[in-house]
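cron nightly-structures :: item 1 of 1
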Amino acid sequence: MAAQTEESDCGREQTKAEQDVDQVRRRAARDQQRLDSGAVTSPKDLENLQREITSLAKRQGDLEDVVLEVMERRESVQERVGELTGRVASVQERIDDATGRRDAAVGEIDGEAASVTKERGVIAATVPADLLRLYDKLREQQGGVGAAKLHQRTCQGCRQELAITELAEVRSAAPDTVLRCENCHRILVRTADSGL
């Protein structure tokens, strides 16, 4: 935006400088025409007119130098605008690509969430109501995980190994007894690799 503004400013500056050159040119041409026409006969007026034409020629040269300098600056700024515009387009392309990938991932996650929610509903219907209430309460308290697998005598919820007395209680408990970890209080899920 700054480069585009600078280019626009240079364009206005160039236009003004070119108008100044044209104005001096017209005035010099008018004076030269008066000189050539012979309408001015007084030697003093002729000398002043010639001096003014010389002064205007110098002024025109100075103004043309200003125009060239502004044109060079404007060209440099236009190159910078082109470069920055290309970079912006490249970044926007990457943003669009990332947005598309994000939207696709969100769609996949939403699909998976719907599928898992449906599966959970089917499984939850087979779990006793009091156990389901306990699980939901623990899940809310424990950041979304209400039950944890017991693997090699270690609770996978808190990653703590069960004490010897806890292991003895787990070994002696009936298969349908609801057991909880002493450390994190999650429901312990026993499997063949629990290490009992």
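cron nightly-structures :: done
The mean pLDDT is 90.
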